[in-house]
Amino acid sequence: MAEKRRDKDQRLEQAKDLSSWSQWKQSTRRTLRRLKEDGFEMLSNLELWRGDIHVIEGMFGTGILSYFSFLRFLVLLNFIMFLLMFGFVMLPIITAPHASGNTTFNHVDGLPCLFQILKGFLEQTYLFYGYYKVETIHFPKFTYNLPLAYLLVTIAYLFLSLIWIVKRSATGFKRKLVQDEDRFQSFCNKIFAGWDFCIVNDSAARLKRSSLLYELKTDLEEERIKQKIADRTRKEKCRIYVIRLILNLFVIAVLAACFYSIYIATNFSQKAQMTKVNFILDLIYEYLPSIVITLANFITPLIFSLIIQFEDYSPCWESRVGQEMYKLMIFDFIIIGAVTVFVEFPRKLIVDYCDCGLAKWWGQQEFAIPQNVLEIVYGQTICWIGTFYCPLLPAICTIKYFIIFYIKKVTLVNNCRPATRPFRASSSNFFFLAVLLIGLALACVPVTIGIAQISCSQACGPFVNYTTSWEVLPRTVSQLPAGARTFLLAISSEAFAVSLFVITCLAMFYVIALAGAHKRVINQLREQLVMVSSYSNQSTWLHNSTVQ
Questions:
Q1: Per the record, what is one GO cellular component (predicted)?
Q2: Which of 68, 147, 157, 273 could form a disulfide with 81 if both were Cys (CB 3.0 to 4.6 A apart)?
Q3: Quick check: 265 and 98 in contact, CB under 8 A?
C-alpha cells in the first residue's frame, strides 16, 4: 500500500508540472478510455443468452457451454444472412411501384391450408425463388438490377460465412495451442489464479466453483487418456486399428444404404405426386424424401448432402428445390422437438420413478455433444444450399435455432446428467467450426453448380432472360465504363489469380517461418529461466551451508 501511495503522489507531482493543455489531453484520454470500457461492458451485458450460458457453464462445464455458444453463433449468422437477402432482394420488390412477382402454380381447390403451409406456400409468396420474376426495378432516381443483386448477395453470404467461420476457427485454434503447450501451467493457472475475487454473489460463487471443478476434472481425464494411449502395447494397437477399419467399412456401407434409400424415396415421391389420391397420402408422398433423410440423419449422425434429381421437375425447378429445402428444415425441427418430448422426458420419468432393473441399466441420459452438433450443422448446410432458392430460409433457420436453444436448455437441465467423459471448450469450439466449415464447402458445391452450369428456368425467377444465373455478372461488367471494365477484367484474369496465389503462398511460408523462430526463442528463454532458477537455488544452498 505504501508503494501505491508513493506512485500516486509521484503521478500527482508530475501532473502539476504539465501545462493546462497537456493536463486536458491526459484527462480526456482517461475519460474516453473509461467510456470505452463502460461501453464494452454494456454491450457484453446485452449479449444474447448471456445469463443462460453462464448458468449452463456452471452446472455442466465449458464443453456443454461450447455447444450453446456455437448455437448462438449460428443464430447471429443466419440473422445477418436474412438481413442481406431482405435488404437487397425482398425490400426493393416490396417498396418498388409496379414490381410484383409471378407464380407458376395452379391452385387446386379443396386442399386444406395446412397442406399449403407444410408444402412451403409453393411459389405464391416472397418465400421462394419463383416469385421474383423482375429484371429491373425503376425507382425515381435510379434503376435497380435485381438479378445482379440476387447473385451478389448469394456470393456475399457464402463469403461472409467463410470469413466468419475461419476467423473463429483461428481464435479457437490459438487457444487450443496455448492450452496444449504446457499442461502443468494450465493446472497452476486454474488452482492458483482461477478464482475471481470480484464475485460477491453466493449463486455466482457456486457456479464459478463448479465450473473450476469441472475444468480440473477435464484436465485430469485428458491426462489419464493420454497416459492410457502411451501405455498401449503393439498388440493392442494392432487390435484397435483392425477394429477401427472394420467399423469404418461398416459406416461406409450404412452411408451408401442411406443414399440409396434417399434415391429410391425421391423417385417414388416424384412419380406418386403425378397422381392425386387423397390429402393424407399426398402429404406423405410429398414428405417422403424428407422423412427418409431425417431418419437417416437421426440414426446415423453423418453429414451428407441431398442428391437432387433434375428430371420430371416443374417448369420452375428452382422453386421446387427451395420447397425441398424448406420441408427438410421444417421436418428436422419437428423431429428434434418430438425426440425431446416423446423420448427424453419419458426416459427421465422412467429412470426416476421405475425401480426395475432395465430402467436402472438404461440410466439417466447424457447430453450427446457430437450428435447435437451434427444436427445443427446439418440444418445449417440445408440453409446455405436453400437460401438461393428460398430467400426467407435464413429467417426460418434463425427462428428454428432460437427455439432449439431453449429446447436443449430445458432438456439439459431437467433430463441430463453431467458427461462421464468431459469435453474441453477450446478443442470443442475448434472441432465444431471445422465440421461447420466442411458443411459450408459441401453446400457451396451444389449452389455453384446451380448458378454457373445449370440452365435457369424460363418461367420464373429473376434470371428468366439469362441462360445461367452467372451470365448476369459478365453482361453487367460489359456495360460498365472502359476503365472500370478493364480493371475488373484484369483482377479476374488467370494471370492475376496465379500472382495472388504465389504471393499468398510466400506470405504463408513467411508466417510459418516466423512462428517457428518465435517458438525456438521461447524454448531458449525457458531453458535460460530453468538455468537461472537452478543457479539461484544452488547459490542459496551454498550460502546456507557457509553460514552454518
A1: plasma membrane
A2: 157
A3: no
* pLDDT value for 470: 76
Burial environment of residue 477 by CB neighbours within 10 A (0 to 12, 13 to 18, 19 or more): middle
Measured CA to CA, the distance from residue 295 to residue 277 in angstroms comes to 25
Task: Determine the straight-line distance between the first and last CA of the chain, rounded to whole angstroms.
Answer: 36
> Looking at residue 12, what is its pLDDT?
61
Identify whether the C-beta of residue 411 lies closer than 8 Å to the C-beta of residue 349.
Answer: no
d(CA 367, CA 63): 10
Give the CA distances from residue 23 to residues 12, 19, 33, 222, 427, in Å, rounded to whole numbers and listed in that order.
11, 6, 15, 54, 48
- Looking at residue 105, what is its pLDDT? 41
Backbone angles phi, psi at 94, to 5 degrees: -70, -45
User: From CA 441, how far away is CA 454, in angstroms rounded?
Assistant: 19
- The conformation of residue 131, written as its DSSP 8-state character, comes to G
- Per-residue pLDDT, 26: 74
How many CB atoms lie under 10 A from the CB of residue 466? 19
Q: What is the pLDDT of residue 421?
A: 60
**pLDDT tens digits, one per residue of 118-171:** 444 445 566 666 666 767 777 777 778 888 888 888 888 888 888 888 888 777
Summary count for the chain: helices (H), strands (E): 19, 2
Residue 391 · residue 462 · CB < 8 Å: no
Output the CA–CA distances (angstroms, integers) from residue 124 to 94, 100, 401, in the order listed.
Answer: 14, 11, 26
Instruction: Provide DSSP, 98-148.
Output: T----------TT--HHHHHHTT-TTSSTTSGGG---SEEE-SS-EEEHHH
pLDDT of res. 186: 66
Strands of 88-238 (E only): list them: 136-138, 143-145
Residue type, 449: I
What the block records as the C-alpha cell of 346 is: 419419458
Q: Are 424 and 63 in contact (CB under 8 A)?
A: yes
Q: Which residues of the chain have pLDDT under 50?
A: 100-122, 301-315
Half-sphere exposure of 44 (CA within 13 A, CB side): 7
Rounded distance, CA 347 to CA 479, Å?
Answer: 65
125 contact partners, CB below 8 Å, separation of at least 6: 131
Residue type for position 113: C
pLDDT of residue 352: 75
List CB contacts of 70: < 8 A, sequence separation 6 or more: 373, 376, 429, 432, 433, 436
d(CA 395, CA 157): 13
Q: For residue 431, give every residue at least 6 positions away whose Cβ sits within 8 Å of its Cβ, in sequence order, or none.
A: 373
Question: How many angstroms from the chain centroid is the CA of residue 343?
Answer: 26
Within 10 angstroms of residue 233's Cβ, the number of other Cβ atoms is 8
